[in-house]
Automatic annotation (TrEMBL):
Protein name: Cytochrome P450
GO molecular function: heme binding; iron ion binding; monooxygenase activity; oxidoreductase activity, acting on paired donors, with incorporation or reduction of molecular oxygen
Pfam families noted in UniProt: p450
PANTHER family in alphabetical order: CYTOCHROME P450, CYTOCHROME P450 12A4, MITOCHONDRIAL-RELATED
Top-level division of the source organism's lineage: Bacteria
Family: Belongs to the cytochrome P450 family.
Transmembrane segments: none
Length: 331
């Protein structure tokens, strides 16, 4: 499902308000119907089933068109950034947790600059260098999971926490090049990120920005975690920058943080990322790669479990694609 802010076309017509959509109240719109922010996408899905693949919703005073129409969503993404802007709610939400300087909240030339830096850091060549790491990390976590599965034979297993560990383990290695505060016993990063993204989710649908005036205990906990993360990433970045300054211009970075830092060192000021952009993008990339991948994996396993014939088909396709090596041919 894709949401997009009302572009100039939509803004100059009354199309949005003529589309079907949930009931709305003055000032809060339909926010009161969303309830738990963690259910945001489930609620959108329920509304899509009820109102169709294109519906209108007001959240606060902002008006949105929500599309689950694949053709339209593709068109919207292809027309970024000039033709289509993201909902203002995205930049506002990132701003509420002091992480606004990232690709997902950027528009226009600023988006283009950040997109170029990130696409370069995520290039097939750089990801290809990570193949061994991904392979070993998956193997290590599968071995650990195997023991847990054997210990709970006959009982249902909630795979989502496992898939979160899987994707966080891999994405943090891609971004930082190592474990970054995750050990077998203590997955500190995962707890910290959950707190950060739960704060992002609840501030996104909060009717008033109360944290600007006073802080609840959960807001103080969030501030502590965010400040610690910023301090640690900045420390790493400072050391990495010193090493990168010694490297030749055509040096290929080993991880995404180094890739972003190479852009902080860019000679052309219009192309250079600021220190804050590097920090916000490092955290945003972990967010982009964690829940998306883990939820997809969990759903895939659940559906494969229900459809054993597809499971068989997938197994044979993988056997052919990996030619018995267990390695993907495209990485
Ligand atoms: C199954 C897994 C994934 C799903 C379903 C997914 C979904 C999406 C979607 C829907 C967008 C478009 C968002 C928008 O423009 O508003 C997007 C963009 C993006 N995703 Fe993912 N993603 C996944 C995995 C990843 C991973 C692993 C990474 C990074 C390591 C990543 C990095 C990005 C980046 C950099 C963008 C571009 C944002 C931009 O150009 O503004 N994604 N993804």
């Amino acid at each position: 499902m894709t949401s997009s802010s009302t572009t100039s076309y939509w803004q100059n017509t009354d199309v949005p308000t003529r589309l079907p959509g949930p009931p709305s109240l003055p000032f809060v719109g339909s926010a009161f119907l969303i309830g738990n922010p963690n259910r945001f996408y489930a609620v959108m899905q329920r509304w899509a089933r009820k109102y169709g693949d294109l519906f209108h919703v007001k959240i606060g005073v902002d008006s949105y068109i929500v599309s689950s129409n694949m053709a339209l969503s593709k068109l919207l993404f292809e027309n970024r950034p000039e033709g289509v802007e993201r909902p203002p709610m995205i930049a506002r939400s990132f701003s509420s947790i002091d992480l606004v300087n990232n690709l997902f909240a950027a528009e226009g030339e600023n988006w283009r600059k950040q997109r170029k830096a990130i696409a370069k850091s995520l290039s097939a060549h750089n990801l290809g260098k990570a193949e061994d790491m991904i392979f070993h990390e998956v193997q290590r976590r599968l071995d650990r999971m195997d023991q847990q599965i054997k210990a709970s034979i006959g009982k249902p297993i909630n795979f989502l926490p496992h898939s979160k560990q899987f994707s966080l383990g891999i994405i943090s290695r891609l971004v930082f090049g190592d474990d970054f505060r995750q050990t077998a016993e203590n997955d500190e990063l995962s707890t910290e990120l959950s707190l950060i993204f739960n704060t992002l989710a609840s501030r996104t649908v909060a009717p008033i920005e109360y944290w600007k005036w006073f802080k609840l205990p959960k807001d103080r906990a969030f501030e502590r975690v965010k400040n610690r993360l910023r301090r640690d990433i900045t420390q790493r970045a400072t050391t990495a920058l010193e090493q990168l300054r010694e490297q030749p211009k055509n040096h290929r970075p080993d991880n995404l943080l180094d890739g972003l830092l190479m852009h902080q060192l860019a000679e052309e000021p219009a192309q250079a990322l600021s220190e804050d952009e590097v920090f916000a993008n490092a955290v945003a990339l972990i967010a982009a790669g964690m829940d998306t991948t883990s939820t997809t994996l969990a759903w895939a396993l659940y559906l494969l479990g229900k459809h054993t014939e597809i499971q068989q088909q997938l197994r044979s396709e993988l056997r052919i694609a990996t030619q018995g090596t267990g390695r993907l041919p495209t990485l």
